[in-house]
Hints:
By secondary structure, the chain is of the alpha/beta class. The chain contains 13 helices and seven strands. The N and C termini lie far apart (73 Å).
Amino acid sequence: MKRKDYYKFTEKKVNLDNVDQVYREKFVLAGIDNPDVLDAKIEDIGDSPVCIPGQKDNLESKDVYHYFRNNMKEILGDGEGFIFFGPKGTGKSSLAGLILKAVIIYYKKNINVTFVDWIEYLGQYFYNTWSGKPFDVQSEAKAWIQKNMKEAKLLVIDDLGKSKRNHNSVVEHLLEVINYRNRNNLSTIITMNISLQELDQKYDDEHDRLSDRLRQVNLPVGFLGESHRLEQSKELLDKAKKRFDNLDQEKNNSGKGNN
Ligand SMILES: Nc1ncnc2c1ncn2[C@@H]1O[C@H](COP(=O)(O)OP(=O)(O)OP(=O)(O)O)[C@@H](O)[C@H]1O
Ligand SMILES: [Mg+2]
């Protein structure tokens, strides 16, 4: 049955012009539950300036998106990925989410992909379930990690640099996941607001430099420019100013009324 007929048949009110809506459930199941990322559109957020070593210097984040879209099969086939790094609020997570959504749409939902917030992930799977919990819960967590972190065709690790949890077992776990993925040609996108050097200092390993592993197969993309959250806070200030002006106006008017 064609998708259109299916929606007619089940009487689901889905706007087929908006393909994102059709796949929304899968986006959420893949881990994209932040509304900012879930609703991001490349037309709205693709103008963030980015730089890639060895490339011309007037690139925008939409160029990275189209680079991925145009070469998706080859990139995923070879297990290539990206490292998005740069200051807060510059659009890294939004772009990573858009790429993941593009993969889901292209493969019509039948692909194992995962988006994890690194801090949430460590709390939920690494610490909470692995310490002091019954064995069946631990094995559930391990099975989840195997399927969704190790074997996912595309894994986004969002905000890798942010967690303060960087002791040995976390570093080992991260290396285990990354090594497994590299060996099996599985693509990974890392977002972080620290540099690769800082990543090495943070996840220091005696034998292995994490950044070397990551750089082998992941294209580094530096996000430049100001935080878009600042723009949003300026918008909020403008809105608040208008509201206070209106209040003043109302006060003045009621003051006049009293006279
Ligand atoms: N090019 C853009 N123009 C306007 N708004 C944008 C643009 N890119 C992203 N945004 C908006 O800016 C906010 C921050 O974006 P995002 O969360 O992707 O940034 P980030 O780089 O991942 O930040 P952090 O380092 O804090 O995780 C979001 O609300 C997003 O919708
Ligand atoms: Mg982010």
